[in-house]
Amino acid sequence: xxxxxxxxxxxxxxxxxxxxxxxxxxxxxxxxxxxxxxxxxxxxxxxxxxxxxxxxxxxxxxxxxxxxxxxxxxxxxxxxxxxxxxxxxxxxxxxxxxxxxxxxxxxxxxxxxxxxxxxxxxxxxxxxxxxxxxxxxxxxxxxxxxxxxxxxxxxxxxxxxxxxxxxxxxxxxxxxxxxxxxxxxxxxxxxxxxxxxxxxxxxxxxxxxxxxxxxxxxxxxxxxxxxxxxxxxxxxxxxxxxxxxxx
Length: 247
Prior knowledge:
Layout: H1 2-5, E1 18-22, H2 31-44, E2 47-50, H3 67-70, H4 72-83, E3 90-92, H5 95-103, E4 108-110, H6 111-115, H7 120-125, H8 131-148, E5 165-166, H9 169-178, H10 182-195, E6 199-201, E7 206-211, E8 217-224, E9 229-237
Parallel strand pairs: 1-2, 1-3, 3-4, 5-9
Antiparallel strand pairs: 6-7, 7-8, 8-9
């Protein structure tokens, strides 16, 4: 559609002479998409470098088949191999390709960054959103669509949503790897504070609590701060501990 209708605004003024196109593996047999992307980049003023594996021969970025969740180490190797195909900045038109490459330090822009006139260096160096941020972005988008398109509002935050968390950057990285949302932690704390089902370590002043909202049990180690809960550790598991009492 963009190729046919034209670009909505002027492209950024400062672009490098050459950039490499990273084709999404799901478009291997979509030649019209390959051609449209390259025509759009030509209008922006870019000379395109074709990667050794592109168009119908392109390879996965590490996300396909949810590889990153099933085998993170293999996914990282795949990403590394893809990003080493060229020293040039990459242009992707799949959000996951863009964010996975950027997560390993490869300067990568999304095609829409150029279409919407984002500054090149800023867009190329931007890291993608984490697990929790993606979740929150979807909620914000839903709220905006309800308000701006349908004139409706979302319900006010209640219960666990009002809990303020203090999570260090290092722990946030661990939570990303463990696929634990901030909302999951909020639910554990809300449950523990409401029911009193928590353990207190008198030496550290920290609490340990768990909650199983569905199929996953979440454990959180936390302490009380000024109007917030300080999170020290969190993990989860899917096993069920069943007590078998002899009759």
